[in-house]
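**Sequence with structure:**
===
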Amino acid sequence: MNRNDANHVSKSLSLQQRRTQSVDEYSLKRVDGEVFGENGQQINKGISDGSCDLIEECSDIYGCNVPTRNAGKLPPGVRSRAFRRSRSCFAPSPHCSFGPKATLKKIQNNNQLIVIQDPSSQRLHWLSPPKYVLIIRKPGQSTVPEFRALVLNLLKRDLTVYIDSSDETYLSFDKNVIDKDKVTERCKLFDQEHDISLIDLAICLGGDGTLLHASSIFQQTCPPILSFSLGSLGFLTPFDFKYHDKILNEVLSGNVALLLRTRLSCVIQKDTSDTSKVSSDENGTTTERSDDGKTYLVLNEVVIDRGPNSYLSNLDLYINDKFITKVQGDGLIISTPTGSTAYGMAAGASMVHPNVPAMVICPICPHSLSFRPIVVPAGLELEVKVSEDTRLTAWLSVDGRNRLELEQQDSVRITTSIYPIPSISRFDQLGDWFESLADILHWNLRKPQSSLETDQDLQLEDGESNDFAPIS
């Protein structure tokens, strides 16, 4: 083995070790003299005097926090002012004083402050032991053996299991394996209207579509989701069901890495100024369309396209009520970072890590040589309106579902939702994503270039073999 091969092997080993190690080994360390807390239960809350000493306990809707600095070990009266985030997806926390006289304006209302969290600190913590588990599986016979094994495992742990009504026929177990009364008592049919607030943990058996279905069920706050890969692709489902018993032990005990997958809030607004867009019932009473004002939470993308029409889509794009551009083409994709590796990637958009707070705007086959996909900050409000001079209608779909027709002057308002999908990670928030890129999408797959020494050796070998070649 030459020197280059040895270096390559050592780099591969270090990468594998880094992937398999816990995030805690990186996030809870002393870096450049700064001391991190032990439990990571605090979060930046406000901007005070232009410094970075902004640590205050807070419980936000995400339920995930960043590492805290241990102020108890500092001398009395001394405050740690400048600090740098350790290993993170984001840049270091910026110093908030600019030159001798400039600083950031103090924010009086903390609700207006957007905090960028350190992904390495996003760990699952149960406030109390979980009791109610929802199983969502891919339809068909292919996932039935895993479904039965999972139900049996959860019942033996004295957990209450909720299942879909179509899966009730698969609950017949041998009496020597488990008591029939326990199955009847602990296994219940899931009623989305009444039981959704009870679910402590959701387990998906299937592919990426199963996770998208779980997102459509939880249209507000969502419990942690554990996804086993039993589908065709599995980009969003990192776990192998073969090790489900060990994985359940770790998840139910807590302290596993969480990846907060951002969702989009999509609100449909119908143009009511045109009387042709209102319907009348039998009594002559006019009512607006039922889909007017309807809100969807979207995990992958919102797509507005031309549907079955043969003409170009003609859409107006606004950001924060400011007109940006007119979209003329097959349509427009507004995707989350999670969705950037789905339809957006196929349409030519950049792939964005799920922890990056952003939205991706990608045209579909634009009739323009200069319309490139762009990435905008999360939190902006986008509006896509069907142009008044469009020839035909447009069509809306969210995560490939809920196909709706949009007429002239109808619009869709899209912004970042405060309800993410807390997806349980296999290794950590970075390792899972890059492993999926390499193993599933074959990202940057190429035969490695050989070194100069190897090339020279091959040339010498070729020359020697030619010397002994028979002369015809």
About this structure: The radius of gyration is 27 Å. The CA atoms of residues 270 and 410 lie 5 Å apart.
